[in-house]
Give the backbone structure.
Amino acid sequence: METDPRPDDLIQPFRIDPFALRGRLVRLGPTVDRILSQHDYPEPVAAILGEAIALAIVLAGALKYDGVFTLQTKSDGPIRLIVADVSTAGAVRGYAQYDEARLGEIAQPAGQSPSVPKLMGGGYIAFTVDQGEHTERYQGIVELAGATLAECAQHYFRQSEQIQAGIKLSATRVGESGVWRAGGLMLQRVPPEGGYETIADDVEDGWRRAMVLMSSATPSELTDPDLSPHRLLYRLFHQETVRVFATHPVEARCRCSRERIVGILRSFPPAEIAELAHDAVTTVTCEFCNTRYEFTRDEIAGLAPT
């Protein structure tokens, strides 16, 4: 394979022939570092949010949609909420809510994915596709069942989609500067397309072999800035026939704006708007990007219906 000229912030689709295996490799550098650095998250929170962002992107890359794909977890553990979403245009954002006191001294072991039972406890993970007004939203929900986010996602596919899938995720700091990087790898077994002349046993053996090869990918390989996506795929699957396709770029870009915040405030009941107008200045902070929007008393009062 040729060297990939764009090593970061992308989705690299690929296929393993002739076994009807479809895959996506996600590599995140500045995108995930910007999202995680906008908040002063403790290390375990940042690590699991980084994995959630990579998971949202790798799952969105499998869908044909025009809108926003959202991954959300709600749970009763120290990390009570995680939200990560990606638009069709590749705009990515995410945030987490957590209880610092309950988080305590939970450490993030080097080279291991964050523990879902320790950090999140019991709850659910939901995947939503929102294509805007006048369209039906699709949502799939399943309990958080697994030691890692990757295992929880695989549980969803087994329970809800009856699709065989393998997923690997990693998010960690690298280098002396300690910048965040993340990676995700997913393989799916899909119905064979026309032209494949393989028997069931061959397809089954191909799937099992590909899963073994994928499982050999280490967390450091998924996040290594010096290991391009093409080189990683070749390293993992060079014994198979791997076909790569055009990459899709992603970037950290929040969809908040002053106009959007005004629209939300206008939807408040008049009594709540009047209560906000008691303060000289009302500040609204975006949970995703931490941008602060300030409104004067007169601006708030002007939002009430006349």
The radius of gyration is 21 Å.
